[in-house]
DNA sequence: CACCCTATGGGAAACGTTACCCATCAGCTT
DNA sequence: AAGCTGATGGGTAACGTTTCCCATAGGGTG
């Protein structure tokens, strides 16, 4: 009894033989290409079914398409990204394309690894979600394979972009708080060193949107930004700093929900109540913002919409690589919950 | 000015020419194969660097390996899965393998689609995380490509498995609650219809573990199981039912953290307090269980450990397809937090 | 009736890599 | 000196698919 030595795969040649036609004919049927009569198509389709034939992507890739779209997600933990993914897969449903994800993970090095891997695997198109790599790296990738960049603002002639208007989102929060009567509204931002990213990344746009909105409301003097990171720890530390102010803010706009979680923790630790003593708002409307126990006011990016648009643009670009690049910008909405209320009297 | 028509890729032939050797030699160097002198290796490596050559996975796949490992995740939203993924990638770091994720998503149909896609793409090995497909489908997949199944208990001669001991995990919770003084401990389970899955799936094992642990503690009479689903909604509804009992339980063991979230919501709505009136425990130790605002007692599965083991087994099986199948079972631990305490007096 | 279309089908050469095998050569052993 | 060995390098045929082209046949046109 020998090891069952995986039976040889059914190939296009087997199908051709079984249907009494040429391999060329089978190929034409597979790709819905020109030059096959209806009878031919029927005959071949039957043979394909009878033999359970499936085309081998590797072999196809050697000649042209692999019918694979790669999506790079920076942090699979961020509950916002699955939304985007749903949008992408939803839009690709019904096409022959299959989506595969690359775990972008941590920083530029990993992004290079993943994008290279996707190119090496002959993927037909790439969706890069919130990449941190420098612009020229993105353009390098885009010159090798049709690419759409999601959640990053700067635009390039070689790739399309889809993003929410983070500036507008920040303004939504500030105005919401101001309408409740707040004036001392602070912001916790993600510290950014790289100069390009300082313009292109969502965190930078949010901080900028915060500043503008404050100015527009005549609250220039109250602008108060703490620079930490988009992590729970960053929120915790940022809040500590803000609570230590001689004249502490009555509201905190955290640049991300996870940051807001850290803020809530620090506030509880200080023996203060939310929203009694301090209003708190986040950004991203993640799953836990909606949890009853938390009920965090947040900004909802239309994740699915973003994904759908990205997929659509990608298909267009695959069809016409030379076409001009497109930038899509979507509008976020505010979801007011129980962590924001009127300031203490 | 014409469209920049992506420049032809550097191939092994270019490298060979540039280094004045044969393509065979280059191939040997690439694969660290036998039959290349140190000088040869050095020369070829230099040429590779100078030309920026990268092997095309599609072409490799046509001959043998693609150096790609596919990981199917059922629900990218479940914050437990990234842990597993980290374990897998961590173990594969340093090897030539690249991990790509398939969005398993919703049910058998999608699982078939994703696994087929991975096979078609010539992946060298698959990790299936908590698949819902029937056993023979899994065996079919495993007979086409080396496979490790994660988080599912039944074992098969053709694939390896890695899972936590869910029965033991459930027992941990029950004993913890019993030690605190609880007797009326209820359980909310995920309703399972399929007979195979009723044995193999983690949810079934947890329910079973709950029953056994109750019996072991002499609490046979107090066994109380509500059958809904592993969703927040399921937890909410389950809790509603339990709270409506004439003699309501003093503790609820929810089969998953997300279920516990629903329970907490229902409890708050009923005007009761946790853990004052009711203790609540979850399972999975997800990110939000740890959030200060929630602080949910839960069971921690060694996610990274699971992933590492899966990757290790997969590499072994790729190296020796005929080898006997292995089952790894890991022990979960209890993380007691603030949602469990002594029962009301 | 000669000619030229168009529609349909197939032959065969790629695509980039690996694996099998053979050739060569230097250094030993008889 | 002939024969053997092991180490090194290369030639070449796959792998499964697509794509470029050519062949054929039938039908319409001049």
Main sheet properties of chain A:
6 strands, parallel
CATH superfamily of the largest domain in chain A: Response regulator
Strands in their spatial order, largest beta sheet of chain A: 2-1-3-4-5-11
Rg measurement of chain A, Å: 25 Å
Biggest interface, CB < 8 A: A-B, 52 and 52 residues
Oligomer: homodimer
Mean pLDDT of chain A: 92
Which band does the percent of strand residues of chain A land in? 15-25%
What do you see in this structure?
Chain A has 345 residues and is an alpha/beta fold. Chain A has 3 domains: 12-55, Orthogonal Bundle (434 Repressor (Amino-terminal Domain)), CATH 1.10.260; 66-164 and 302-329, 3-Layer(aba) Sandwich (Rossmann fold), CATH 3.40.50; 166-301, Rossmann fold (3-Layer(aba) Sandwich). Chain A contains 14 helices and 12 strands. The first copy, chain A, has helices spanning 12-19, 23-30, 38-51, 57-63, 81-92, 107-120, 135-144, 166-180, 197-200, 202-216, 232-243, 257-269, 287-290, 303-319, and strands spanning 68-73, 98-103, 125-129, 147-150, 160-164, 185-190, 224-228, 251-254, 279-281, 298-300, 327-330, 333-335. In chain A, strands 2-1-3-4-5-11 form a 6-stranded parallel sheet, with helices on both faces. A 4-stranded parallel sheet of chain A has the order 7-6-8-9, with helices on both faces. A two-stranded antiparallel sheet of chain A has the order 10-12. In chain A, strand 3, helix 7 (135-144) and strand 4 form a beta-alpha-beta unit. In chain A, helix 1 (12-19) crosses helix 2, helix 1 crosses helix 3 and helix 8 (166-180) packs across helix 10 (202-216). The longest helix of chain A is centred in the last third of the chain and has 17 residues, at 303-319. Chain A is elongated and about 85 Å long. The first copy, chain A, starts with 11 loop residues before the first helix and ends in a 10-residue tail after the last strand. Mean pLDDT of chain A is 92; it is low at 1-5. Chains A and B meet through helix 4, helix 5, strand 2, helix 6 and helix 12 of A and helix 4, helix 5, strand 2, helix 6 and helix 12 of B. Chain A binds a DNA duplex (30 and 30 nucleotides) through residues 9, 11-13, 21-28, 30-31, 33-37, 40, 55-56, 58-65.
């Amino acid at each position: 009894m020998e090891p069952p030595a995986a039976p040889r795969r059914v190939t296009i040649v087997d199908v051709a033989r079984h249907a009494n036609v040429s391999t060329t004919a089978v190929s034409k049927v597979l790709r819905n290409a020109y030059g096959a009569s209806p009878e031919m198509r029927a005959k071949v389709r039957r043979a394909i079914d009878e033999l359970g034939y499936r085309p081998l992507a590797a072999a196809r890739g050697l000649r042209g398409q692999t019918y694979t779209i790669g999506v790079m997600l920076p942090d699979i933990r961020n509950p916002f990204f699955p939304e985007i993914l749903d949008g992408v897969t939803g839009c690709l449903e019904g096409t022959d394309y299959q989506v595969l994800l690359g775990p972008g993970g941590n920083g530029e090095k990993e992004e290079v690894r993943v994008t290279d891997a996707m190119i090496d695997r002959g993927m037909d198109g790439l969706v890069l979600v919130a990449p941190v790599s420098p612009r020229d790296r993105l353009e390098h990738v885009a010159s090798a394979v049709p690419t759409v960049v999601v959640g990053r603002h700067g635009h390039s002639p070689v790739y399309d972009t889809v993003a929410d208007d983070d500036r507008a989102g920040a303004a939504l929060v500030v105005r919401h708080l101001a309408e409740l009567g707040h004036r001392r509204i602070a912001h916790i931002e993600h510290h950014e060193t790289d100069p390009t990213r300082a313009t292109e990344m969502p965190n930078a746009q949010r901080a900028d949107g915060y500043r503008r909105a404050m100015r527009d409301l005549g609250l220039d003097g109250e602008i108060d930004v703490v620079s930490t990171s988009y992590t729970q720890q960053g929120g915790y530390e940022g809040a500590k700093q803000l609570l230590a102010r001689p004249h502490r803010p009555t509201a905190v706009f955290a640049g991300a929900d996870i940051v807001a979680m850290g803020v809530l923790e620090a506030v509880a630790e200080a023996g203060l109540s939310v929203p009694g003593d301090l209003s708190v708002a986040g950004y991203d409307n993640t799953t836990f913002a909606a949890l009853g126990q938390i009920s965090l006011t947040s900004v909802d990016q239309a994740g699915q919409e973003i994904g759908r648009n990205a997929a659509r643009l990608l298909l267009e670009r695959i069809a016409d690589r030379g076409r001009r690049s497109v930038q899509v910008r979507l509008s976020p909405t505010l979801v007011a919950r129980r962590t924001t209320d009127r300031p203490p009297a």
